[in-house]
Structures are given as structure tokens and as C-alpha cells.
Amino acid sequence: MQEQTTKSTTHFSPRASLAVIGLKLRELNLIERITQTVKVPQKKVKFTPAEKLYDAFVTILAGARGLNESTTRLRSDEALQRAFGRTACAEYSVIQDTLDACTPENVSEMKQVLATIFQQHAQAARHDYDSCLQMLDIDMSGLPCGPKAELSKKGYFSKDGIRYGRQLGRVIASRYEEIVVDDLFAGNVQLNVALRSLTMAAEEVLQLDYARRGRTVIRMDSGGGSLDDVNWLLDRGYQLHCKDVSSKRAEAWATTVIEWFADPHHPQREMGWVVPIDTPDYVRPVKRLAIRWPKRNGQLSYDLLISTLAAHEVIELLGQPQEHVHEPELVALSYAQLYDQRAGAIEIELKEDKQGVGLTKRRKKRAAAQQMIILLNTLAHNVLMWARGWLSAAEPKAKRYGIQRLVRDVCSVSGMIETDEQGQIRSVLLNRGSTLARTLVSAFSSMLKPQAIAVELAII
After folding, report:
1. Which end of the chain is more exposed for a tag (fewer CB within 10 A), N or C?
2. What is the spatial distance between Cα 417 and Cα 368, in angstroms, rounded to a whole number?
């Protein structure tokens, strides 16, 4: 739908709100960064390879599960293309060809682009290490695929059991819900193999020197809790909050616990401090908390929580009153609760990416192509988190929105986009029939105020 006037042209867009975010992203020069750095060995016909990768990125932001949806979500939406700095969109088959042409060198180049963007715009990159600890969660997540795909190996996949697939290794800055590192591994690789490479990659992105590592907490499950891996992290100066890999060792140390405390949040779960306090197996002193609970067959199951954090640091990370440090039971519960929070951090972020931006829906046979898709998803995730921050600065309600809500609702408000004779966007009119548009219109307007682009409500 278009209305021609002597001075302007108005275009309808089913995602006018996403166009607002696209206009804001123009300040980040994303397409220029990709074009200047990522050199895919493919001939330019109508679009450069970098432009086609950028089209794939916008398609992901638009909520597409498969890149074939670029035809309906981006290619048919001229206004959305203009908002993201594009004058046209490549066909999805051409985008797929570009992904297939990507090499491991291109993957490294894209990682460099993402690291640069992260360092300049992420909250985690501006974290104040002197005032509070940085929390990094590390985990693996299965990406099922066919047996003929590169890196496809039989391995354990949650909910799918033993099957063919790949593994995604992720490091997330939990305080800010930003992805620091995403990397692709073979399907039979678990955290004990991927831990060190993921940690080193996070160090590079966050520019962690020894002093900053001393103010950074690594939180992970028992997959990274071997003695060698724990000592490697401790030797590099990190703070640590994880579980021991061995349940038998946990059961053995649990026999030394003098006093068990019941967990009011988890019926039948108990915890107690292991004695003696000294830990000669580790290169730095650690605290060990034994946790036990009954299984369905009546037998007890055990875990051993390993932590270098002092009680007051745990209390502070949880936002609890500092008076709790004087209550042994509350201290023990706090250590367990801080570990439990990883389920609401990295596990939730992985779930949201799978539901919100279709992380597991786009599969490529070549490993480099799959890794490139993962990196575009990483960029989309972080951009959505930054967009939430821009919106919440004017509308605090936006802080509650997760990835799925942002893609499905916030980025899908219809409206009209007005352009001048030169094709520059002058204003965005959001559908006033949308409750979300009425709630966020002032926040969207604040985002584009520096560009002097009006955002208003209108009857569409």
C-alpha cells in the first residue's frame, strides 16, 4: 500500500516497530563492519556476500524460523529494508548459497566483528569490576541434525536422548543477559572438552586481565567440575562456583558433614559444609558444600558444590541483607541458591533463543555455514537485549520482556513509514490499535530523537 504525495511516500510495514530498531542500529554501522571485515569467497552479482549475510541477520530479527521466510518478512517489506540501510533484499536461495560458501576464515572474521561490536556497545564490556563481581555462565546445548552433516556425532541431547547432532558452547554475562561467546562443537563434545576454549574466547572478548579475572565468577554445572579443569580456572585467577564432576566423591565427602540444613525452597533437599576446611587437591582454597536429596527409589543422591566466593560476596550477588552472613544456615542456603540461579540465567537464555529466534530451526550441512548462522543469531540476541535497554530507559516495563516477547510482540507492531523524495525516513506511525504500541510509543520516540525522526500513533 502506497500513498504518493508531492513531497513524501508512505509505506505500510507489518513490522514498523522493528524498523525503529533498525534505524537505531544504523548508528552501530553493522553492515559496514561486516562488509569491511568478512570477505566470503563468492562473486558479487547484485549484492555483496556481506550484504546477503546482513539480510539473513535482519530476517532472524524479524522472527523467521527458516531463511526462506526472508521472502515474506523482509523482501516484500521495502520500508523495513530502508530502515536497516538496505535498498533491496536478496532471494533466500542466494542467501543460502552465500552461507554455504563461508569458510572457517570467514567464521573467524565474523567473530572479530562481533567482538568489536560487543566491546563498544555491550553492558558487560563496560562492567565496573571494582564495585561488583562479573558473573559468567558456561554451558553446552544440543543442536540436533542429520548424521551426514559436518561435526555431526552421536551424543547425549536433552529431551532427545542419544542421537546425531552438534553441540553449542555458550558463555553468557548473566547480569546483563548478553552472549559473550557462542561456538560450535561436535555432537559428542561435552563441557569438559570445550571449557578451556570457551573461557579463553570469553577472556579475549571481555579483555580480562588477571585483575579482572579475579573479579569474575565462572558458574557451570558438573560437566566442567573435574579437578584438572577447576585447578586450571583457579590458576588463571577466576572466582568459581560449580559442582564437582564426581557424585561418588560427593557422597564420600558428605560423610564428613557435621550439621545438615533443610532447604525451605526444595522439600527434602539438605545441605551441609564439608570438613576439614583445607583443600590440598586445589591450587587455591575453596569451600565445599555437600547437597543431598532422596531419589524415587528411596536412596540418597549427592552433589558437591565448589566455591571460592566468600559469604558476603554470595549474599551481595543475591541481593540479600548482609546480616545473613552471621547465620550459618542462611549462608549455606545462599551458596546453593546462587548455583540454582544458573537455571534462570544461561538455561533460560538458551531456551529463549530456541523459541524466540529459532536457534535450532536453521540447519546447514557444512560446519562453517552452521557456525555463521549461529554467530548471526548471537548478534540478533545481543541486539535485542540492547534494544530492551534502550526501550526500558523510557519505559521500565520493557525490562521484563524476554527474547520471545521482543521478537513476537515488540518487533511486530504494524504501521506506516514515511520517506522523503530522497528515500530517507521522516517518520514512523505505529498502529494505535496495538496495546504494546501505546505503551512503548514514547520509548520508541526517545530512541530516534537524536535522528530527528518522529514516532507517533495513528489509525492504520
Report:
1. N
2. 37
And the C-alpha cell for 122? 555491550
Which class for 104: exposed (0-12), middle (13-18), buried (19 or more C-beta within 10 A)? Answer: exposed
Cβ atoms of 66 and 362 within 8 Å: the answer is: yes
pTM above 0.85, yes or no: yes
CA 185 to mean position of chain CA atoms = 17
Q: Are 142 and 165 in contact (CB under 8 A)?
A: yes
pLDDT of 278: 67
pLDDT at 1: 45
pLDDT at residue 120 above 90?
yes
Helix (H, G, I), strand (E, B) or coil at 241: strand
Q: Domain ranges in the chain?
A: 2-107+366-458, 133-349
Task: Report the pLDDT value the prediction gives residue 43, as an integer from 0 to 100.
Answer: 86
* Residue in the block written with cell 542421537: 163
The CATH topology of domain 133-349 is: Transposase Inhibitor Protein From Tn5; Chain A, domain 1 (3.90.350)
Buried b (16+ CB within 10 A) or exposed e, 26-41: eeeebbebbbebbebe
Q: Which three cell numbers stand for residue 319?
A: 541481593
Distance CA 349, CA 332 (A): 27
